[in-house]
Design brief:
Elements (H helix, E strand, L loop, with lengths): L1 E10 L2 E11 L4 E5 L6 H8 L7 E6 L2 E2 L11 E4 L11 H11 L4 H15 L14 H13 L5 E5 L7 H16 L3 E6 L2 H4 L4 E6 L2 E6 L1 H6 L4 E7 L2 H9 L8 E3 L2 E6 L2 H12 L6 E6 L4 H10 L3
Parallel strand pairs: 3-8, 3-9, 6-7, 7-8
Antiparallel strand pairs: 1-2, 1-4, 4-5, 9-10, 11-13, 11-14, 12-13
Helix pairs in contact: 2-3, 2-4
């Protein structure tokens, strides 16, 4: 469905997107995962033709979208982080406005309204001004406006950023319903738990993809064994272990430490010998399955 080849974009001396090449299959949720400043938004703007690349290409159904931008408009929807809803219009008026913007007749919009209200659960609020909606409801209205022309591909730029957990869950349920209908979804997110919901992901950092595949494939690609360590002084433990080359990927989470090691038994002998010299007691050392967050931090720390 989508084929990206050597896509590159600079802003001055900053290379926001660095020679990216990847493919996205029809009817899948493809997640672009990374922290703020990784280049996620720039990539989606390039894929939606809002930005022109410095080099490389984006092909949708074998059509170069930057050479023929209007050829794919009716099959593509893009929802930026701050979707341009008109806050002085009602929910219904916003849907109608965007429907007309996409060239739909009044009759066609009316036919689609019930379906849009059904999945978004916005019908009870259709007469409410968009400016008076909650953050989660605004995001669902933004998605409804993007879907009014029934696109085959949806690009979503951090759609649940700042949204409460219940609304995030409801939003993802909507995405799964769309997936069941064969819609192709590309979503950027900084939430690693959301990445677990995608069919495939690309971890992005510094304008590059540093890992990719299914969430399980990314976790399986990690070399070494992940352990969780609890001590009587987590902060000092973190400082001491980070001074050891073997443990540079130490992550402090709450009252415990997470790190990758090559040998658990060796770590169980070596770590206490370091910490006990400073009066730090070991409460537990346990082997754990790594999360995507653990994998991401480990890759970045190793200089991927």
């Amino acid at each position: 469905m989508i084929n990206v080849v050597n896509l590159t974009k600079h802003f001055g001396s900053n290379e926001a997107v660095s020679a990216l090449s990847f493919t996205i299959n029809k009817g899948e949720i493809y997640g672009i995962v990374g922290p703020d400043g990784a280049g996620k938004s720039t990539l989606l703007r390039l894929m939606s033709t809002i930005l022109e690349p410095d080099s490389g290409s984006v092909l949708i159904k074998d059509v170069n979208i930057h050479d023929h931008p209007y050829a794919i408009k009716e099959n593509l929807a893009y929802m930026p982080q701050k979707f341009g809803l008109y806050e002085d219009l009602t929910v219904e008026e916003n849907i109608y406005f965007f429907g007309r913007l996409f060239g739909l007749s009044k009759k066609d919009i009316r036919k689609k309204e019930n379906r849009l209200y059904e999945f978004s659960r916005l019908e009870p609020f259709k007469d409410r001004l968009a400016g008076n909606l909650s953050g989660g409801m605004k995001q669902k209205l933004g998605l409804a406006c993007c879907l009014v022309h029934s696109p085959e591909i949806i690009l979503l730029d951090e759609p649940t950023n700042g949204v409460d957990p219940v609304s995030r869950r409801e939003f993802w349920k909507i995405l799964y319903d769309l997936l069941a209908e064969g819609v192709t979804i590309v979503v950027s997110t900084s939430y690693l738990d959301e990445a677990e919901r995608c069919n495939r992901i690309a971890m992005m950092y510094g304008g590059r993809f540093i890992a990719g595949g299914t969430p399980q494939e990314v976790k399986n690609s990690m070399k070494g064994i992940f352990i969780e360590l609890a001590t009587t002084n987590p902060l000092l433990s973190e400082m001491l272990l980070k001074e050891v080359d073997e443990f540079k990927g130490v992550i402090l989470t709450g009252k415990s430490l997470r790190l990758f090691v090559d040998d658990v038994q060796k770590a169980k002998r070596f770590i206490p010998s370091i910490l006990e010299k400073h009066g730090i007691g070991i409460l537990s050392i346990e082997e754990k399955l790594p999360s995507l967050e653990d994998c991401f931090v480990e890759i970045v720390v190793k200089g991927a």
